[in-house]
Amino acid sequence: QLEADQHAKEMERLALIKKMQELELNQKSKQLTQTTDALAEEKKTSELKNMELDVANREKKVKEQELKQNKLYMLILLAGLAVVAVFAFFLIRNIKQKKKANALLAQQANEIEEKSKIIEQKNIETEQSIVYAKRIQFSILPPPHEIASHLSNYFILYKPKDIVSGDFYFFSEKYADVKQKNGNVIIAAIDCTGHGVPGAFMSMVGNEKLKDAVDVSHQPGIILNELNKQLKQALRQSGDATSTRDGMDLSLCSIPAFLNGSEKVQIKYAGANRPLWIIKKGATEVEEVRATKHAIGGLTSDHQEFDQHEITLQKGDTFYLSTDGYADQFGGPNVKKLMTKKFKDILLSIQHESMAEQHKHLDEFIEKWRGDAEQVDDILVIGVRV
User: Fold this and answer.
1) Distance CA 159, CA 195 (A)
2) For the packed helices 196-216 and 2-140, what is the interaxial angle rounded to 10 degrees?
3) Burial letters for 218-239: b for 16+ Cβ neighbours within 10 Å, e otherwise?
4) Alpha-carbon dihedral 345, 346, 347, 351, rounded to 10 degrees
5) Which partner for 327 in 7, 53, 296, 343 could form a disulfide, CB atoms 3.0-4.6 Å apart?
6) Does residue 102 contact residue 108 with C-beta atoms inside 8 Å?
7) What is the DSSP code (8-state) at residue 155?
């Protein structure tokens, strides 16, 4: 019994110990649960704080980013405003400058227009003066009826480059005896230095001095010798470097005063740099009588002698005096000089034509040859048929 009681007590004690252990375990479990809950709560609180902090940081970063963006936008805006301001400044300045320039241009245009009117008026007055000078120059040329009374079968092609000319033709009947129907006439083609107004001045001087020289003699060689002396004297030409070098080239002939019906005639010729061309009836080539290779005036000596030639011509023969203007004219398909050889070929090709037809042919040919090219020099061609 005792053992049973002891065993029961022992069992009770063990049960009590177990219960106490269970209570202790429950207590510890409860404490652990509380600790765990506390930790979890603390962790949750910490995480919440971290989240709040992260959110705050993000908000801060967002605000900083927004602030940077706002600053950037502000800088861009300011830069844009600055560019606009600079552009506006230059635009306004450019507009002002253009207005000023336009005003200046308008003023200059008005001034130019006024000056143009003045120049135009001066040009009109100058042209009118030159046109009047042409009348004076043409008045010194021998009238056609005067020449025709002695040379019925002739032509003169005369084409000044400008209104007035440095070329001129000369005719004198001083040594012709109208009553006796004999004697001689002088005919010449003269090319003065230059063309236009300067050439015209020279032609006036040359014409007067040629008249004076013809008064001295009817021999072509002597006439040119005398003309050279008188022209150099009139222009005060000497060996001095400051003296003028202007002068004349010419071909001059003395021919019987009345060629009508003549079967054979003798002509006398002298030239200064300009030859005499002869085309005999039925001939296929041009005969050239060479000129003395010196000009009248300029650098030519006062004592220069000019060779005189005597040529016998038959009825139907033709001779030509000319300046260099016809052969020197540019034109044709390649805009080149006509040249002397082609000029001679043209003269040969028209020998079957009358002198009037030759004049027309030569005039039309040179105009067609020239085309749109400028006339480069005065043109003078004289043709006489026996």
Assistant:
1) 12
2) 20
3) bbbbbbbbbbbbbbbeebebee
4) 100
5) 343
6) no
7) E
Binning the chain into helix, strand and coil, the percentages to the nearest 5 are 55, 20, 25
Nearest partner of 134 among 111, 162, 157, 113, judged by Cα:
162
Looking at residue 142, what DSSP letter applies?
A: P
Sign of the torsion formed by the C-alpha atoms of 15, 18, 24 and 25? negative
Query: Which one-letter DSSP state was computed for residue 163?
Result: S
pLDDT at 240: 66
Give the residue from 315, 311, 305, 254 showing the smallest Cα distance to 277. Answer: 311
Helix (H) or strand (E) holding 187: strand 182-192
Cα–Cα dist 285/288, whole Å: 10
Mean pLDDT per 10-residue interval, the chain, length 386 residues: 74 77 75 73 75 78 80 80 80 84 85 84 81 84 91 94 92 86 92 86 93 96 97 83 81 87 87 98 96 94 95 95 97 94 97 97 97 94 96
Query: Residue 66 has which token pair?
Result: 């927004």
Residue 312 Cα distances to 155, 253, 309, angstroms: 21, 13, 10
Residue type, 238: S
Give pLDDT, residue 311: 97
User: What is the structure's pLDDT at 1?
Assistant: 67
Q: Are 286 and 349 in contact (CB under 8 A)?
A: no
Residues 6+ apart with CB under 8 A from 223: 186, 210, 213, 214, 216, 217, 252, 270
CA distance 242 to 21: 153
Task: Tell me what pLDDT residue 362 has.
Answer: 98
User: Are the beta carbons of 262 and 242 closer than 8 angstroms?
Assistant: no
Provide the token pair at 83: 């560019």
Return the residue matching tokens 């009047």.
132
C-alpha–C-alpha distance, residues 168 and 228, integer Å: 17
Q: Is 60 helix (H, G, I), strand (E, B) or coil?
A: helix
